Amino acid sequence: MVSTTATSTKRVVIEPVTRVEGHGKVTILLDEDNHVTQARLHIVEFRGFERFIQGRPYWELPVAVQRLCGICPVSHHLCAAKAVDRLVGGENLTPTAEKLRRLMHFGQMFQSHSLHFFHLASPDLLFGFDADAATRHVLAVADAYPELGRQAILMRKFGQEIIKATAGKKVHGTGAIPGGMNKNLTIDERDVLLADMNQMLQWARDAVDIAKNYTVEHLELAKTFGTFESNHVGLVTSDGALEMYDGGLRAVDADGGTIFDHMDNQKYLDYIVEAVRPWSYMKFPFIKSIGPENGWYRVGPLSRVNVCNHISTPEAEAARQEFKAVTNGRPNHMTLAYHWARMIETLHSAEKINELLHDPDLQGEDLVVTGERRLEAVGIIEAPRGTLFHHYKINEDDQCVMCNLIVSTTSNNEPMNLAVQKVAEQYLDGQAEITEGMLNHIEVAIRAYDPCLSCATHALGQMPLVVELYDHEGTLIDSKSKGAVTRDD
Amino acid sequence: MTPGITFTIDGKQVTAAPGQTIIEAADTAGIYIPRLCHKPGLEPFGSCRLCTVTVGGRPCSSCTQPAAEGIVVESDTDELNEHRRALLEMLFVEGNHFCMFCEKSGNCELQALAYKFGITAPSFTYQWQKHDVDASHPQILIDRNRCILCARCVRASQDLDGKSVFGFVGRGPNKRLAVNAEARLSDTNVDVTDEALDVCPVGALLRKHVGYKVPIGKRQFDHTPIGSDVEGEPAPDDCGCGGAENVCQCTQSE
């Protein structure tokens, strides 16, 4: 509830929603001269899973917790599975099981990145941030660029088919079980996927070009638009390559200097701390050694490409080098560069999928391993939106007694808020009236991070994002949302 | 040879052996009558009432009613199916059935019956009763959230395993599955090889550490609805399961 007669900004109250996807709120506070004094993105993330999973048997965790998300459930499924592997002493998977999981994960990365870039972000990039709101959606993209629209749908479908072939269903499957997988990839399933492989590779190359060209052509905008320097966190292999499924966590500072590298994933709490702020239900993680003030960090495609030394597949590596050249090898801090990095990862995913589909290990029969039981375990994985942590404790009766999740959008909480602040200062400062264009500029900044809430902000032309403008006394003076809904509640 | 008993079910002539119940004769004749507490090999119990049919217009449970010469049985009628749908819905709101992550999903008779009767969501209000999980046994789990009080495990433990591990305590809404010990399952003489563990129609009585080992597409009701084994209907040709999303429960079920 937000009172129009409030005399203090402290009167802004957030109504919780049960999912992070689809609902967010930005509040902007102005002083007497209409200068921005505060801008916040409120995401009310229901974290009930951490509580109601308690008491459930450990083998349910990968299937139950993935229900936290409908967009990237594979990430939660595999992250929980990695933790549960350790609970049963089965963390050293058979080659078949590990490659099947990687295939599932790359399928997820491919479909999720494609969904975001084409369905959610491309209207901004193709039509402009100030374009008529009625045209800023994927159907308009399909109308103006029919081939791109078709590509968007079929790329996502390809990724979803990989998930179905490995997990049993396109959404919320059961493929990963403690210590392995419950099925391999049949020859028939493989061949169906291979039939589309070359087309997917080409479309992924094309997508990199679209994102690259946009960024290079709008470099001056990208250098300033919601841009700020930050730390970056992501998984890398032992030799520093981009890694999505396993590996060690690396954090670099704004200049690329190492903060930590290949820390013990099981002791992530020695490195990462979650701060709580009274105005948000979402926590604010930060790097413990630096502290809450400056220890916050970014995750996701931009961070992953920043922290890695190289990419193991040739075409994505070539694309990465072009990406790095723009900042002369220094970490790229441009919020809009997330799109380019995301498409580099999409190309990498396509290359890895192609590699895996030609690997006979995927037809192996040795699917599950077990070992010495443990009562506590941590799984860390790179979800499409960034680093994901699952931490569980179980009792001697196999029941979960503790669950802690740090999801990607949570790690990007502070950065997204900062991006909102930056864009508000750049496009709103001194303005008493909110325009539709200004509103979308803020959305564009948030959307670059691909938070789960973005899924609903663009696809149907409905704007769950509400921007509210207060004067220095805390009085609501304007509010805008898509559909011309003015909130006065 | 003993002469058979002849009667009709939904207008179809059926022959039963002396002593057979109506549901047993129906099974032999390839006519599926929905059931939950009934399980071949266990003594008839007559509690779930899902197998209720009318005999000469009077309702009775077909799992306990002996077949008789010349009776006219009706089962697949709109009225009876509406009652069955209501009974199923009541079971769903009494318990805490989260099919989306239940390891019995795809093999669960309650879920399969809900699909058969087109129940997408109960029309009754969820009761959200608090039920216990007994995970004390190293190899066996009781999740009372999912128990439908069918007594299959009670009968199997007693009649097939000779143990009497399970029973009921309480009455009405407080009735629940109990174990023959002071408190926990681990204090009983239940064994992971007991046949009682094989008869649970839902995910209330489970062997631990099994979970989701059967992949989607290979589960009992992934391709054919419940009762197909009785009716002898083959699986749809196009269920591989590589598609046929409008047909396969494997792609529809949670």
Biggest β-sheet of chain B: count, sense, barrel? 5 strands, mixed
How many extended strands of chain B? 10
Specify the structural class of chain B: alpha+beta
Kindly provide the name of the CATH class of the largest domain in chain A. Answer: Mainly Alpha
For this structure, what is the CATH class of the largest domain in chain B? Alpha Beta
Structural class determined from secondary elements of chain A: alpha+beta
Widest beta sheet: strand line-up of chain A: 2-1-14-15
Biggest sheet overview of chain A: 4 strands, mixed
CATH topology of the largest domain in chain A: Cytochrome-c3 Hydrogenase, chain B
Q: Averaging pLDDT over every residue of chain B, what do you get?
A: 91
Please tell me about this protein's structure.
Chain A is an alpha+beta fold. Chain A folds into 2 domains: 9-47 and 412-481; 58-275 and 289-368, Cytochrome-c3 Hydrogenase, chain B (Orthogonal Bundle). Chain A contains 16 helices and 15 strands. In chain A, the strands form 5 sheets. Chain A has a 4-stranded mixed sheet, covered by helices on one side. The longest helix of chain A is centred in the first third of the chain and has 33 residues, at 95-127. The radius of gyration of chain A is 22 Å and the shape is globular. The model of chain A is unreliable at 1-22, 454-464 and 482-489 (pLDDT under 50). By secondary structure, chain B is of the alpha+beta class. Chain B folds into 3 domains: 5-76, Ubiquitin-like (UB roll) (Roll), CATH 3.10.20; 99-125 and 214-252, no CATH class; 133-207, Alpha-Beta Plaits, CATH 3.30.70. Helix content of chain B is 19%, strand content 15%. Chain B is built from 6 helices and 10 strands, in the order ββαβββααββαβββαα. Chain B has helices at residues 22-28, 78-94, 109-116, 152-160, 228-231, 249-252, and strands at residues 5-9, 12-16, 52-55, 58-61, 72-74, 133-134, 140-143, 166-169, 176-179, 205-207. In chain B, the strands form 3 sheets. In chain B, strands 2-1-5-3-4 form a 5-stranded mixed sheet, with helices on one face. In chain B, β8 (166-169) and β9 (176-179) form a beta hairpin. Chain B is globular, with a radius of gyration of 19 Å. In chain B, 41% of the residues are buried. The model of chain B is unreliable at 237-254 (pLDDT under 50). The interface between A and B is medium-sized, with 27 and 24 residues.
